[in-house]
Queue: 3 jobs
Job 1
Amino acid sequence: VLTKLYKLAYNFSEGLAIVEIGGKRGYIDLFDEIAIEPIFDDSDGFSQGLAAVRIGGRYGYIDRSGKLVIKPAYENARWFSDGFAPVELEGRWGFIDRDGRMRIEPQYEEVGNFYDGLAAVRIKGAWGYIDKAGRVVIQPQFSRAGRFNLGLASIERCKEPESARSSKSCRLGYVSKSGKIIGTQNL
């Protein structure tokens, strides 16, 4: 049972939870003990052994001991999945591996994480999917694109621009990893 109250507390991931103390974020363990001191301006939960943290206006990654393993160099950063993490540089998104090497250069307006070997990417306002080599495998054509799970991802196509969109102008469905649209008529 946790006995302390925190200004901010998140769910546990990989045995640690983000807490905010004195305006800084750190991590507690399952025994409500400080595992990683609250020294970060922002932080994410642990995934694949690493967590994104913001120090001095830039994001890097720490391991579960709190050691900085990927230096803070990014405007924004997300969690690792399928061995890659999305990072933002100069307003564009790309992907790094767990060693901090840039694997897919920042070139996308927005991205999702990799799941089942594919990641959603937004190019010129439309969403499509790339593989881990950075190849477009499903052309950008969707208004929204979810993550893949068991070979399918949820998608949405809308007839109107986002600012004028209503639910009546949009159709929901699924796309397979081969690009086949499934589950709805007239998508």
Job 2
Amino acid sequence: MTIMMIMMMLIIIIILLTTVVVVVVVVVVVVVVVVVVVVVVIIIIIIIIKVTVVVAVLAAVVVVVVVLG
């Protein structure tokens, strides 16, 4: 009887440990995905800002050339 109880306890402990491990892994994966998405969005925003600045500068140069020319 005591051996059965010990086995049950061991099984319950193993189940709890596996659930904890699964939860931790899921949380880590979610955090990593969120961080990657945020970094990608920031990079895209920076690229868009750079492109708009370059386009604005080129447009200003064209306007100046046209006005002066």
Job 3
Amino acid sequence: MIPKVAFLSKEGNFRTRLFPQYFAALSVGLGNFYLGTVIGWTGNNGLDLLNGNLNKIPVDDDELGWIGSLFNIGAMLSCIIIGQLCDLIGRKWSLLSLALPNILGWLLIIFSQNVEMIYVGRFIGGLSSGAFSMYGVLYISELCEKDHRGALGTIIGSLLIWGVLIAYILGFALNSKGSAIVSCCFPVLFGLLFLLQPESPYYELQKGNDEEALRILKRFRGKFHDVRKELEQIKFHLEEEKLNKVSILESFKRSEARTALWVSFGLMLIQQASGLNAVIYYTSIIFNSAGIDENILNSQISTIIVGALEVIGSIFAILVIEKVNRRIYLSISGSFITVSLVLIGVYYTLQERNLVTPEILADVGVLPLLGMFIFILSLGASYGPLAFLIPTEICPPELKGIITSVAATFSWFLAFIVTKFYLNLKNTFGGDVTFYIFAVFGILAIIFPLFIPETRGKTLAEIQNEVKGK
């Protein structure tokens, strides 16, 4: 049972209980949290793995690239599978089904006897967590009120970042094996808490379970809210979509479907191609290769600082996301992302092209630190959470499953490409060229948001009407 203690807010003349909505966001967000621990596991354990400290298994640069990137292949498949299951068995049970396989993935790593077992463990880790990046937000966007949807969706995104930070801290405090053992506990906690949550009212209405949908809305809105009015609005919207339903191929010929598709793909492209996962997966290695004096700032400590800055960025996003124009907010964030990537690239140019003396290079050693910190802070406050929130807001209901599934799969595919070939690209062309390529997509992050629909403060039905031009 959800406690009846309530935080109260106003929406028109109705008072509404916020605690159940925030508790639901926290519960499903724990799935995103354990996704973050899987992503961040290599961040401070990369050098530990290269030194063969995990069960005395020798690992080279290429194998480390596979350890980092195979997770993304699993995450891609996770989005495809869960995208279908969400429409068959519901959002709740689809997401709950991921917890047990995630535990199995960690156990394979903990008891690994060779690098192939680590590969399989990482693949299963991605398969059992990748879908949370999109479908956790989808679940809460269908459950909460419009005035809190942005904040709650951002909370879910920020919990992924918290998971990454905790993984960094565990890697520093323990080692690759010890951090895997602790991380194995998080999917258990998720399963216990999320089991208490209901199904999405949208899903219940799609299945004709009107009374159950009404019960869920009463639980999450409180007795002062006109629940039946909201229920009728949702039903009307779903019925309208049902009457206009055509084949999937025909659906994609409609302007609102095409808009949802290009916006979703564009946001995912910017998020991943700007180097997000390369930085997260190889943070300590990037700092180490940048030549930062270990006596001044240990690379593992730097990694933790990076994770903490991403958390700070996500907290900032939670506080402002319902108060600012999201298009302008993303565009301004894109400018900071671009500048930060150029700063890192400039340092690598000076270092790798031998353009300055070692003394001068030491004097500008703050550049990669400054660039990394600005990059993580800016991305954590913008494209990190919003790239997953906005697609769930603008997709037509009948195509929400397939578009979010394809978009999330595209995101993890890009993450695989970036994480697998980052070290190869850096070793072949240099760190400067690599980060200048990332900076090109940073420029896209400035321009692209100006052409997407604004979603702040609107119901899902209102957003659809706007996209349709009604």
